[in-house]
Structures are given as C-alpha cells and as structure tokens.
C-alpha cells in the first residue's frame, strides 16, 4: 500500500481532545475524528494531502485496534491522547461498520522484554485506575503537591469520561462508583473534600461535574442522594441533606439565598434554624402589601383639654426670684435716668 500513515494536517497536533469534553453526539465526534486524521503521509506527492475517503475505506471492517505503552510514566488515563486517538478510532470504526473493534494494549512497560504482553484495554485501564487514582498511597502523594496534585485528581476523571464517550466498552461502571466513594464520600478518611476546597476549588468542581455527567449519560447508576451532593460541589457550595427552603413574598415564591450569600447574614440564618412554633401558637400572618415600617400613629378621640406640663417646684422658685431681680434693676435705672434729666433742666 502506498498510503498507510494517516494523521492530522501538517503542523497540527491533536485529534478530538478539545471537542470531546463538550460533545454530546458520538456520531458527530466520529466524523470529526475522520476529518481531522484523514491526511495521508506517503510519497512526496501525497505528503500531507487530504485522503479522507481512503482513510475511511481502511477503517471499515477493522476488528482490532492496537495501542502501545512502553513506560510506566503514562497509562490510558493520565492524558487525553489515548482516548482521543485509540478511542476515537474505535468510535470511527463503529460509525462505519456498525461494530466497535477490540481494543488491545501492547504492554511493554516492564524493562524485561520477556514480560511484554498484549492485554485488553479494559483490563489495562481498570488496573491503572485501581493502582493509582483510587489508591490511598497515590492520593497522599498528590496531596503533598497541593494545587498540582489536586489538578491530577480531576484530570483522570475527565479522561475517564472521554473513554466513556468514545469506547464505553472498556470502562467498568464500578469505577464511577468507586471514584464517588473515594473523592466525595472520603472512603480513606483523608479529608479530600476539605483539602480540595482549600488548595484547588476548581479541581473539586471538575470532579463533581465529571461524576454528575457520567450519571446523566447513564454510565453510572448513582445513588439518589448523590445528585444533590454533586450539584452543590459543582457549584462551589457545601452539600447539605436538608431541603432547600423558599422565601414567599406575596404571590411570588423565590428560592432561598445561595450558601455564600447566606453566610454573609449569619443572624438571619440563625433565626431560620429555630424550630417553628405549633400552628395554634402562631400569630395571624399580616398582608405583605399592608406592611409599613416606622412609627405607628393613632387618633385621639378624647374631648378633655390638653394639659401642658408645668415645670417642677425646685425649678420654679429660682426662675421667679431671678425674674423679680431683673425687674427691680430695670426700674431703678429708669428712675436715675429721669432725675439726671430733671437736674440738667434746672
């Protein structure tokens, strides 16, 4: 065959890595894979030319797809390339032939050549997940790296979701439940949720969204209590088992304030946490439209004259004496003025 190597266009790196996280239709993702990788690299005349039809003809009827791993540093879940290339090929073959191929890993991770073997992608992926991302020793190691370690915890779940979309047959559904128990329910008592919220809250939200997406797509039969918990974590809130209260204003019902807003008003939250009195002890609820804030005014119907309060006796005596003294001084000055005028006239 003169055309055997197919890859993205020259200068382009990647297959469907960027499109997979937001993809909802696997068939569209399969066509994107064939479009992106339908460039042939053979003779100089055909180097990097688009040969999608030839690529599709070669994919039709393929029964086995092989992917190799030659070291222990990388597996199938630590980057997005394995599911984008091997998983994408499986998705394209299934789109063209109606049947997904068998996915095989050429496992050459050991330094000993005699230990090289071929094994199914499902077995390879499950062993990697259980020995790394769901193992307490790996989790403790990642916790020592704070932000970067939290990012690795969220990345592998996003890549597991990529495998679930492109080659669901290689994903054991129990992995989703185990991930929920380890990362959300804190199976190993490592305080993972609080630690993630402190060092990298975005990673915690990404973990919750990956689990919630798996449940929504039917890949994981999640417990009924997990949905509210994952939604809260995905929104950056602390999960609660209590029903969400509502605030009723006249004829309109509004949702209760979110956790961050309620945290800024601790007094109101404290009052709402008190037990409600029995219906018989409650006062009748006033009409909201008639509520007025301020001083309450009432009409006086009594016909009695309004009495003006008089000063007290200890205050009256000094005031009366001071008034008489001023009057006497004024009268004396007036007499002296008239005598002086009379003397001048004489």
Brief account:
This protein has 346 residues and is mostly helical. 48% of the residues lie in helices and 9% in strands. It has a 3-stranded antiparallel β-sheet, with no helix packed on it.
How many beta strands in the DSSP annotation? 8
Return Rg in Å.
42 Å
Q: In what order do the strands lie side by side in the largest sheet?
A: 1-2-3
Q: How much helix, percentage-wise, in residues? A: 40-55%
Q: Main beta sheet: strand number and arrangement?
A: 3 strands, antiparallel
Q: Give the termini distance in whole angstroms.
A: 154 Å
SSE pattern: EHEEHEHEEHHHHHHHEEHHH
Average pLDDT, rounded to a whole number, is: 79
- Unreliable sequence segments: 242-277, 279-295, 306-313, 337-346
Shape: globular
């Amino acid at each position: 065959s003169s055309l055997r190597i197919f890859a993205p266009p020259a200068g382009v790196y990647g297959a469907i890595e960027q499109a997979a996280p937001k993809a909802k239709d696997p068939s569209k993702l399969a066509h994107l894979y064939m479009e992106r990788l339908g460039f042939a690299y053979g003779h100089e005349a055909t180097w990097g030319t688009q040969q999608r039809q030839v690529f599709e003809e070669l994919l039709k009827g393929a029964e086995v797809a092989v992917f190799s791993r030659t070291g222990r540093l990388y597996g199938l879940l630590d980057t997005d390339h394995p599911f984008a290339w091997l998983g994408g090929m499986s998705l394209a073959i299934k789109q063209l032939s109606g049947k997904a191929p068998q996915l095989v890993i050429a496992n050459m991770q050991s330094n000993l050549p005699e230990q090289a073997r071929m094994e199914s992608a499902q077995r390879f992926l499950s062993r990697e997940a259980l020995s790394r991302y769901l193992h307490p020793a790996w989790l403790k190691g990642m916790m020592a790296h704070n932000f970067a370690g939290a990012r690795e915890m969220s990345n592998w779940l996003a890549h597991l979701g990529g495998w679930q979309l492109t080659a669901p047959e290689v994903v054991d559904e129990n992995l989703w439940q185990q991930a929920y128990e380890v990362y959300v329910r804190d199976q190993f008592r490592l305080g993972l949720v609080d630690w993630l919220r402190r060092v990298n809250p975005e990673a915690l939200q990404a973990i919750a969204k990956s689990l919630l997406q798996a449940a929504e797509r039917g890949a994981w039969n999640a417990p009924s209590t997990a949905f509210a918990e994952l939604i809260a974590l995905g929104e950056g809130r602390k999960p609660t088992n209590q029903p969400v209260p509502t605030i009723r204003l006249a004829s309109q019902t509004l949702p209760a304030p979110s956790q961050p807003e309620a945290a800024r008003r601790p007094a109101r939250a404290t009052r709402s946490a008190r037990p409600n009195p029995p219906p018989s002890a409650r006062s009748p609820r006033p009409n909201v439209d008639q509520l007025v804030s301020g001083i309450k005014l009432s009409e006086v119907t009594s016909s009695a004259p309004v009495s003006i309060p008089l000063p007290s006796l200890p205050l009256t005596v000094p005031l009366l004496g001071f008034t008489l003294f001023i009057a006497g001084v004024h009268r004396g000055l007036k007499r002296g003025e008239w005598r002086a005028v009379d003397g001048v006239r004489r």
